[in-house]
Amino acid sequence: MNAFSVKGNVLYSTSMDKISAFPHHYLVCEDGICQGIFEKLPEKYKELILYDYGNRLIIPGLTDLHIHAPQFAFRGMGMDLELLDWLDQQAFPEEAKYEEEAYARKAYTIFADALKKSATTRAVIFATRHEKATELLMDLLEDTGLITYVGKINMDQSAPEGLKEPSAADSAFRTFGWMNHISGKYRYTRPILTPRFIPSCSRELLEELRQVRMTYDLPVQSHLSENPEEIELVKNMFPEAKFYGDCYDRYDLFGNRPDGEFKFTGRTVMAHCVYSTDEEAELIRRNGVIVAHCPASNMNLSSGIAPIRKYLDMGIRVGLGSDVAGGQTESMFRAMTDAIQVSKMYWRLVDKKAKPLTFEEAFYMATVGGGWFFGNVGRFEEGYAFDALVLNDERLAHPQQLSLNQRLERFVYLGGDLFGIEAKYVAGRNIV
Questions:
Q1: Kind plus residue range of the DSSP H or E element containing 59
Q2: Per-residue pLDDT of the chain (432 residues; tens, 9 = 90+)
Q3: Closest Cα to residue 274, out of 234, 329, 215, 228?
Q4: Alpha-carbon distance 115 to 93, whole Å?
Q5: HEC string of 7-27?
Q6: At how many degrees (to 10) do helices 168-182 and 131-144 cross?
Q7: Is the backbone peptide bond immediately before 385 cis, with ω within 30 degrees of 0?
Q8: Distances from the Cα of 107 to the Cαs of 5, 91, 136, 192, 392, in angstroms?
């Protein structure tokens, strides 16, 4: 048994609106699982190796529910474009380069290294349609020790020649081949079914992907109701669908239908949901789909502001995504602050009844909210995965004594993840 204890100033979400602080407390980890939090270390744990972090802050690891690995190379560029133009001018030309293994290795090595150094401990990741490059990405992520889901993109239309797949059957065939080739290869890196978004998938491809999901019981990731022009395109392409999400749901790619024939253990994450109608939002809730809120991307690509308060009030599960390179940084601290700021603009400009998000709620979404996709992740409670960040805020001098909660909020807003991550545990393994 691999067991140890850590000591420090522990903080985590005990509810959506409360971050509880435990000064100079102990956490115990056994075989990657948290055994609880203690003011005094129980006798049975006193012989364990102790890592004493003194006055440091210890928080749960953060989950990035939506990030595009091949786009990391051009983050911070093309930010004056809207979504569909941005895809044509920035994303698609870059992703086509991953046909070349040498380029893919160089670019993905940079991405994997950056993600390892960040505050992210778990992530849900888009690759490209290229099987070899996607497997290379999985190899590199496996070496980081992070726990991730990686998806080979499927698309057979509305993309440049050479980037889209020749046919629905070819896309499915290559996905089956990729799945068979990586079977049993990884410990920390897992596959996820990835239709890019509805405009890039024909009806035939969606039906093929239904068969892939039924065969492997895969989780699903995609985009939903991100941009007005995109939504109008979906309406024109799929007039039989009641709304955008209905396109996925018709092919069993939208969580679990409560009355459906098939029950999947793999969960579904949909990024954005900026313009989801009430009917679509109810389907999200009913099917157990998790929303990946990506505020930086929604600002950069002029998409809008997602009504996150509405979703939380409905009981929809919401996590955060960096959405690199629509979002300019992989920092989940930045995603937290952006989520709070755009919610204030939504309240001010759109709906006075939509109370802005609090820091506590944003922290919850970055830890517990996104962590739910992976299971019991995001809390320091018995039975939860031991994912933890040890934060050193000594460089942030202050003339007054601050509470632990104030220190944490300031560390997040001032970008402490750029310099102050002293240790990073993923399922009990310190990977930095």
A1: strand 49-60
A2: 799 999 999 999 999 999 999 999 999 999 999 999 999 999 999 999 999 999 999 999 999 999 999 999 999 999 999 988 999 999 999 999 999 999 999 999 999 999 999 999 999 999 999 999 999 999 999 999 999 999 999 999 998 888 899 999 999 999 999 999 999 999 999 999 999 999 999 999 999 999 999 999 999 999 999 999 999 999 999 999 999 999 999 999 999 999 888 899 999 999 999 999 999 999 999 999 999 999 999 999 999 999 999 999 999 999 999 999 999 999 999 999 999 999 999 999 999 999 999 999 999 999 999 999 999 999 999 999 999 999 999 999 999 999 999 999 999 999 999 999 999 999 999 999
A3: 228
A4: 23
A5: EEEEEEEEECCEEEEEEEEEE
A6: 30
A7: no
A8: 37, 14, 11, 21, 30
Nearest to 292 by CA among 356, 349, 208, 372: 372
Please say whether the beta carbons of 25 and 7 come within 8 A. Answer: yes
Helices marked H in 217-331 — which ranges? 228-237, 244-249, 278-287, 295-300, 308-314
Report which secondary-structure segment, H or E, holds 32.
Answer: none
Token pair 């070349």 in the structure block, residue: 100
- For 15, the token pair is 């509810």
Cα of 75 vs its chain's centroid, Å? 17
* Whole-number Å distance between alpha carbons of 425 and 432: 8
